[in-house]
Amino acid sequence: MVLIDGKIYGLEDDSELDAFVDCESHTPSCQAHCCKYVFALTQEEVKKGIYKYNKEKPYYMAKDEDGYCTYLDRETFKCTIHNIRPIRCRKFACKL
Questions:
Q1: Distance CA 19, CA 11 (A)
Q2: Disulfide-capable partner of 27 in 10, 69, 77, 93 (CB 3.0 to 4.6 Å)?
Q3: CB of 37 closer than 8 Å to CB of 93
Q4: Nearest to 31 by CA among 61, 1, 69
């Protein structure tokens, strides 16, 4: 994390993105537990303005009342923005 102009941003290196682990096939059993993680968006992600963030905790990925990411489809447990998801999500590997 880094503090810039009084705001906290996540720091992520975009190397090693999308390391292959077939997490998607496991989401029915794990129920997308990773989508409950709390993390700060990077400064670049905030500047793009395409992600909703938490109003109580600015620049952190938005969560709904159930604690899951706002972009998670609760019926399929699939990400609705998978192709443009944040770097932190891209780097996550469930390794089940």
A1: 18
A2: 77
A3: no
A4: 69
